[in-house]
Design goal:
The complex is a heterodimer.
Chain A: H1 13-17, H2 24-51, H3 70-111, H4 116-124, H5 131-142, H6 147-155, H7 168-192, H8 196-204, H9 209-220, H10 222-238, H11 241-246, H12 254-262, H13 268-293
Helix pairs in contact in A: 2-13, 3-7, 3-10, 3-13, 7-10, 8-9, 10-13, 12-13
Chain B: H1 2-30, H2 49-52, H3 58-91, H4 97-109, H5 112-125, H6 134-158, H7 163-170, H8 175-204, H9 207-212, H10 219-226, H11 234-265
The chains are: A mainly alpha, B mainly alpha.
Chain lengths: 299, 266
């Protein structure tokens, strides 16, 4: 790929030098910093501490603090399959979102002309109806006597006793549907910035549209691909609404397990150990992914 | 054929968009449904009853009321706190600026189930396990809305032309006149957008709320609890109303912006 000369800094020089100095900034920042310190950073410490509690010294001992790394081993040996299902669902939904989202973002950025803003509103419009109501609506669409199943059976893609609801397919379809806007918006932001002249130049140099796409458009849209993938994968891997409303009972996702262990089962140490594990796996995947995709400066 | 080739991408994009509206169409349709039995979920006949008696199940309207109260109060708090922080991050140079940027970004990058369970761990350790309810939901919602507000307002501020402010100062406006007559009106659309986003995030949240709500029930939690026994059709009325109201706000804002652009151009 040819290197493109950077034309401008992300922040113009005037914005950099025009920044004020003085104690005022601390007054403006204080409420946000205090809120996030109290209710975002400290809770992580509580989660870590809870994940290390010795369950034998729990309720009756008044949560006396004894460290116990074994919670992680217990949690993982019991629930590794839920963790694997969550990561699989997240990855599959993200892949589908990337394909569908790229088509939508590309069409809006390059082909929509003066309808650009309206189409962008339409991308986020379904997002305004409640997540749960939309997922229940999918339940209805994929139901055994619904028109999708009937049509597929009529064409012969689905067997007479085949069904869609309560299968991994329905979960992935629901996730891909629910998180599509998270993919489209960052993709649109980076495709929209691409200079058309670069694509024209590639066709002047006898690249056909397919080659032009893979050598010019796709590399230039990578920042959007990276942030869209992360914004889709992370919530999709942690979600349990789709798995529980659209999936079957054989495949429990990690979100369900954490929710149950934290509340109904009253095993907060296991819930905490699983939360920490999920967080660490996602963090590791994000670091590796960003390294490979080559946009370290994204964060 | 040529026409099709030229417009293929646009048509595919529109097809995907249309597909995302199928479940929405079902929600709108079901809001007019007259079901034969409560737990068979299919369209049986047209009626306006669901719209005329939205509170047939009082539990739903109670949950809706809690969601509105939580949504409005946490949106107000998150928008004020987040807007102040966005101004500091764009306009001021201070020690810890890049660390603050990172801390503000992190809540958006953590899965909700982790945010929710860590807050619950804190509340339990602090001895609030028995008092989960409105205030713990409020605290959680302000926490996760805050980052989205900062990011939205910050991008609006960063993209603003500061020549206008300099012009105001050249015309002998005092700093406070410059702020209230020039800066604030220019940032306002960003702040309103952030507030709308924050309200819909709060109104829609299930995973974090479910962990930190104690015995209180928000609208998404109500929907979850009736999902297995059969959802009253009024849930679809609420879904439809949410869509219509937010679309009206967004499209109204868009139309207003266009009209002003035309007025400026003359």
């Amino acid at each position: 790929m040819a290197t493109v000369e950077p034309t401008a800094d992300p922040l113009p020089a005037s914005a950099e030098s025009g920044r004020r100095r003085g104690p005022g900034a601390y007054l403006l920042m204080a409420p946000a910093v205090i809120w996030l310190a109290l209710f975002f950073l400290i809770p992580f410490y509580s989660l870590l501490a809870t994940s290390l509690y010795d369950p034998s010294g729990s309720d009756e001992a008044g949560w006396e603090m004894t460290y116990h790394i074994g919670n992680y081993a217990t949690a993982l040996s019991r629930y590794w399959d839920s963790l694997a299902w969550s990561l699989f669902y997240g990855a599959a939904a993200t892949a589908i979102c990337l394909v569908l989202g790229y088509v939508v973002a590309y069409a809006i950025a390059f082909k929509a002309g003066r309808w650009k803003n309206l189409l962008l509103v339409l991308v986020i419009a379904p997002f305004f109806t409640s997540f749960l109501v939309r997922t229940l609506s999918w339940q209805l669409i994929l139901a055994d006597n619904g028109w999708v199943v009937n049509t597929l059976q009529f064409i012969g893609i689905l067997g007479e006793d085949g069904h869609l609801l309560a299968t991994p397919f329905a979960v992935v379809a629901g996730l891909a549907y629910n998180f599509l806007p998270f993919m489209v918006l960052p993709l649109f932001a980076s495709i929209d910035k691409i200079d058309h002249r670069l694509i024209e130049a590639s066709s002047d140099l006898y690249a056909n549209p397919v080659v032009g796409f893979f050598k010019v458009t796709w590399p230039l849209s990578l920042p959007g691909v990276v942030s869209g993938t992360l914004l889709t994968f992370i919530p999709a891997a942690g979600d349990y609404i789709n798995a529980q409303l659209l999936g079957n009972t054989n495949t429990t996702v990690i979100g369900t397990v954490i929710q149950l262990q934290a509340t109904a089962a009253n095993q907060p140490h296991l819930a905490a150990a699983l939360s920490m594990t999920l967080m660490l796996i996602i963090l590791a995947m994000v670091v590796v992914y960003i390294r490979r995709a080559g946009t370290e400066d994204l964060l | 054929m040529r026409w099709l080739r030229e417009h293929l991408v646009l048509l595919l994009g529109l097809a995907v968009l249309a597909y995302t509206f199928i479940p929405i169409a079902v929600v709108v349709l079901m809001s007019f449904n007259d079901p034969a039995t409560r737990n068979v979920y299919r369209f049986d006949g047209f009626t306006l009853d669901n719209w005329l008696n939205p509170c047939e199940d009082p539990a739903m309207c109670e949950a809706l009321g809690l969601s509105l109260r939580v949504g409005l109060s946490s949106t107000l708090a998150a928008t004020v706190i987040g807007t102040l922080a966005a101004f500091a991050l764009v306009r001021w140079d201070f020690f810890g600026r890049s660390t603050s940027n990172l801390v503000i970004f992190l809540p958006m990058a953590a899965p909700e189930i982790v945010l929710g369970s860590s807050l619950l761990a804190l509340f339990v350790q602090a001895g609030f396990a028995g008092q989960l309810g409105f205030w713990t939901i409020f605290i959680a919602h302000v926490m996760f809305c805050l980052s989205f507000v900062v990011v939205t307002v910050r991008s609006r501020l960063a993209g603003m032309d500061d020549n206008l402010e300099q012009a105001a100062q050249d015309l002998y406006a005092t700093p406070s006149q410059t702020f209230w007559r020039v800066t604030f009106p220019l940032v306002l659309p960003g702040i309103l957008g952030a507030a709308l986003l924050s309200f819909s995030l709060s109104f829609d949240d299930f995973i974090i709320t479910n962990l930190n709500s104690g015995n209180d029930t928000t609208f998404p939690m109500y929907v979850w609890s009736v999902a297995r026994v059969g959802v009253p059709m009024q849930v679809n009325v609420v879904g439809t109303l949410m869509l219509v109201i937010s679309l009206a706000i967004v499209l109204g804002g868009e139309a207003n912006a266009r009209r002003r652009m035309r007025a400026v151009r003359g």
